[in-house]
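INFO  loader      accepted 1 record
INFO  loader      residues=474
INFO  predictor   begin
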Amino acid sequence: MYKVASPSEYLVITGIGVTDIKLAKKSWVLPGQSCSVFDVSPVNYTFEVQAMSAEKLPFVLPAVFTIGPRVDDEQSLFRYAKLISPHDKLSHHVKELVQGIIEGETRVLAASMTMEEIFRGTKDFKQEVFEKVQLELNQFGLLIYNANVKQLVDVPGHEYFSYLGQKTQMEAANQAKIDVAEAKMKGEIGSKEREGQTLQNAAKIDAETKIVSTQRQGEGRKQEIKVKTEIKIYENQREAEVAEANTELAKKKAGWAREAQVAEVEAAKAVSLRDAELQREVERMNALTITEKLKAEYLSKASVEYETKVQEANWELYKKQKEAEAILYQKEKEAEAQKTIANAAFYARQQAVDAELYSKQKEAEGLIALAHAQGTYLRTLLDALGGNYAAVRDFLLVNGGAFQEIAKINAEAVRGLQPKISIWNNGAEGSNSDGGMKEVAGVYKMLPPLFKTVHEQTGMLPPPWLGSLTDSSN
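INFO  predictor   done
INFO  writer      dumping C-alpha cells
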C-alpha cells in the first residue's frame, strides 16, 4: 500500500480523499484510491516536415526534437498527468500529437517567408519555429529540451537546392578564373611598376643630393654673413649704450642743479609762510576774544527775546490750529449734510424711476392684453363670417366709420374748389319726336348752354365763326 516512485517518475493518485489528482514521489495508497506511475524523462522525436515557402516552392525540413514534461512547474505536471500520462510516451498517439503541432506551426511560418529568407536566416527561422511550437505544447505540459533542425532538403521533382548549389559552384569556379587572371595582371603590372619606381627613385636621389649640396653651401654662406651682421649690431649697440649713459648723466646733473635752486627758493618762501600763519593766528585769537565779550553782553538779552518770540509763535500756531480744526469740522458736517441730501435725492429719483418703470410695465401689459383681446375679437369675427377676409375687412371699415370719414374728406376738398354746376338737357323729357335731324338738333340745342358754362367757369369765348354769346339782359 506504500508506493515509491523512481527518480524519473511520479505517482498519480486518484480516488477517495483526493479532489482531482495527487502527484507525489512517495505516498500511501488507501483502499478506494487508484495509483499509476508516469515517466518524466524526455524523448527524442524525429520528423521530416514538408512545407512550402511564400513562392510556392516545396521543401523538406528534417528536425529532431527532445521533448518531455515540464518538471519545474506543478501546473504543467498536472496537465501532463491528465492528458498524456494515460498513453505511453513512445506511443503512436503521443508522436502524432507532437508531430501535428510541429508540422502545423512550421508550415504556417514557412508560408510567410521566401525561400531565400528561410535559407539565409535558418537560425531565426529555427528560433521562430521553437517559440510557436512551445506555445502550443504548453497546454499539454510539455517542454522542448532541445531541438535540432537539419539542412533543408529538396522535395523529389523540385531540385531548388541542387540547382542553387550548382549555381554557387559555377559562380565559385568563374570567380576563381577571374582571380587567377587578376593575379597574373597584377604580377606583370607590378614588375613594370617596380622597374619604373627603381629608375624614378635613382633620379630622385641624384636630384636630392645636388639640392642638399647646394643647400649646405648656401647655409654656410648665410652663417658667415649672419656672424658678421651680429658683430656689427653688437658694436652699434655698445656705442648707443655709451651715448645713452652720457645723456643720462647730463640729465641727472641738470636735475640736481634745478632741485638745489628749488630748495633754496622753497626755504625762503617757507619762512615767509610761517610768519604769515603766526600773524593770522594772533589776529584770530583777538577776534575770538572780542566775540566772546560781545556774546557775554548780548546773549542774555537775545535769549529773553527768543523765548518771548517762541511763546508768541506757539500761541499763534495753537490759535490757527484750533481755527483750522473748527473749519474742518464745519466742512465735514456740511459734507455729511450734502451726502444725506444727495442720498435722499437719489432715493427719490430711484423711487420715481421705479414708479415710471412700473407704469411702463403696466402700460405694456395693457397693450399686450388689448392685443390679445383684439386678436380674439378678429378671430371670432373671422369664424362667424366663415373665414371670409373681405367681409371682415368691410365690416371693420363700416364699424370704424372709415367710409363716412372718406366722404367727409372728399366733400371738404370739393368745397374748397368752389365749383359752378349747371344742369341742362337737350329737349323735353319723354318727347316722342322722330326724324333724321333729331341728333343734329340735339347738338345745336346743347351748344348755347355749353358755351355759357365754359365762359362762366373759364372766361373763354367761342370763335366768331362758331357763334357768339348774347347779353343775358337782351
